[in-house]
Amino acid sequence: MFFLIARSLVFGIALSLAGPAQAQAPATVPPERVKQLFELLDDPSVKAWMAEQRKQDAGSTGAPAAAGASPAASSDAVAAPGQMNTMASSTLDRIKHHIERIVRTLPLLPGQFARVRAETMEDMSGRRPAGVLLLIAMFIAAGVALTWATYRLTRPFRLWIIAQPKDTPIGRAKKIGGRTLYSSLLIVSFALGSAGAFMLFDWPMLIREIVLTFLMAAVVTAGVRMYLAAMLVPSFMQVENAVEVRALPITNEMADHWFYWLPRIVGVFAFFGAAFILLPGLGIDQDGMLVLSVGADSALLLLFLLAVWRRPRTQREGAHQAGHTGATWFLTAYFVVLFLLRIAGLPILFWFTFAAFFLPLTIVLTQRGVNFVLRPGSEDAGRPTIPAVTIAVIDRAIRMILILAAAYVLARVWGLNMQSMQDSNTTTTLILRGLINVVVIALAADFGWSIIKALIERKLGIETPHAEIGDEEMPIVDPQQARLRTLLPIIQNILLAVIVVMAVLMILASMGIEIGPLIAGAGVVGVAVGFGAQTLVKDVISGVFFLLDDAFRVGEYITAGRYVGTVESFSLRSVKLRHHRGSLFTIPFGELGAVQNQSRDWVTDKFNITVGYDTDIDFARKLIKRIGLELAEDPEFKPWVLSPIKMQGVQEFGEYGIVLRVKVTTRPGGAFGMKRKFYVRIRQVFKEQGIELPFPTVHVEGLQNPHGAENAPVEITPELKLAVAQSHTNRRRKKTSTTE
């Protein structure tokens, strides 16, 4: 790579310093005073003063601009007053004059280069260009040597970077940060070894400027290459699982491609930038620089097109040939348009077109990179995660910095600064000031909303461990989590509306629009809507008071009038209840009425057990208590039990046994499964202890014989006994439930 840079530098300096062998000096050399006059007319400050004088003269007398200005000055001047040119025609005139300058200056370049070469050789005290190139090559080699020494001495740091885990977001961030820091260290080493070593000696001023400028171009190229290696991790680095530790989610082929082309594009750009910094001081005028910029733009366009057409297909484009071809042609057309805008001399339109593509591209790549690097860890590492609010802050902060930097660059291209915008009251300045305020307010609103949204999503994503239960029982609802799931979605919607309204009002105020009448009008409209939609207002206000009273939360089982179900979600107007049979009710808050919450705090369940009249009641009480304690210690029911099953006493003397009252206190939903198991255990223990669980029996007498024989008993079959007993049991259950 450094040999490529050195070769480019040799070619560039030879082009700029050595004129063509057959280039002849102009036929007639103008006198010294005429030459000074032309140089004075080419001065930008003189051009600006002459244009201002023409405007003042035209405004006071209405006379056209004075003749005698230089061609360059006339090409940059605006149309004369009284000439009603439209914006399109004036733009076409500027393009025409710009191209004429290029065509007119092209034949004069050999003479300028010959003059530059003569003056340069005189200033360098006879030192030939080959000696300058040798100096540049020597100091580049010194930078490479110091970089290699730094690479050898920092082996422990490289091993630390390699040892960082790739399965966790923190580990991946440390890897990328470590590689970036290591690349910065190598860049500093290269700069110290090349430019720093050159500064240790005394050199003629011209040689000093030339060598330092091109050394800085080499440092920039080497820095871009090292930073790309840290981010893209190309194949030559032989990093294991390189796809997982990159800063972007791209394939190996894509990483190798852009690592190959981007440093070359930046290297050529840096070389031309260094040459354009030096050439004006060596005697090349603005028109000559304009012609040279056409050649530089052509070389950069060729490199961009080669990089675009040779790029590999992405995973998304792999299955669609048309998508890859379409993207390639779009990029080709885009770069050609940029090139034409440069040739036409429309810098403002060029930079706006440049930002319109590369700014969104940079934002998208940054967002993908942040989400890719900070993605959750693997299962083997326990899936560690980075808080969503941290990811949102990083993403939005980078986006805000990129947009503000782009706005600053575009403002500088337009020739604006904040001080002049504050002092000026022209229409264009007012519009630009309003646009800048709109961008700043929108960015601030987006940044604040992203943080609020991330915090709310983080709170909603909390999972509270609870005991495993059957499908028919209600789950344990953590009170804090249920409260958050109830209120946070509503708060999120309210905050979004508040941020949007405040941002719109601030934008309107920054554009000079009076927002006081708008707020008053909105209040009047709100009152009218309130009178016209009383039911809606009733629902919203009722919902607010239900939430303030904490009557129910998401996940709780409630009864409201004829509606029963589990609360699933809220809106500002209604609540959604899921019935245990699957039906979903959407109920306006105004129709709820009294709410019975069956999932709050604790539940006491009371039920009856019937034993025979000859049963020892005290012994039965001890057995019930023992079974209740056993179930309370059962891991399946222990998280649910607040007070174990115990006997309260004798409820009544029934028709066929003594009725015992039993109660248990559990968390909501916890008594169902335990009650079933209690019945199984109590029957088993009572049977072992000889305690009778009576059931109704029926003795039937006095029925008529089917054959007409009087006083003959009817045969009682088992089916008849079972039917009569079942009927009696059903009547008994209905009576018990009614008394409770």
UniProtKB/TrEMBL annotation:
Pfam family, one: MS_channel_1st
Membrane topology (UniProt): Multi-pass membrane protein
InterPro entries per record: LSM_dom_sf (IPR010920), MS_channel_1st (IPR049142), MS_channel_C (IPR049278), MscS_beta-dom_sf (IPR023408), MscS_channel_2nd (IPR006685), MscS_channel_C_sf (IPR011066), MscS_channel_TM-2 (IPR011014), YbiO_bact (IPR045276)
Ranges of residues in domain Mechanosensitive ion channel MscS C-terminal: 606-693
Major place of residence: membrane
Key words of the record: Cell membrane, Membrane, Signal, Transmembrane, Transmembrane helix
Sequence ranges assigned to domain Mechanosensitive ion channel transmembrane helices 2/3 in this UniProt record: 493-534
Low complexity bias (residue ranges): 58-78
Disordered: annotated segments: 52-78
Signal peptide (from-to): 1-23
Record has Zinc as a keyword: no
Annotated compartments: Cell membrane
Stored SUPFAM superfamilies: Mechanosensitive channel protein MscS (YggB), C-terminal domain, Mechanosensitive channel protein MscS (YggB), transmembrane region, Sm-like ribonucleoproteins
UniProt similarity note: Belongs to the MscS (TC 1.A.23) family.
Record PANTHER family: MODERATE CONDUCTANCE MECHANOSENSITIVE CHANNEL YBIO
Name the UniProt record assigns to this protein: Mechanosensitive ion channel family protein
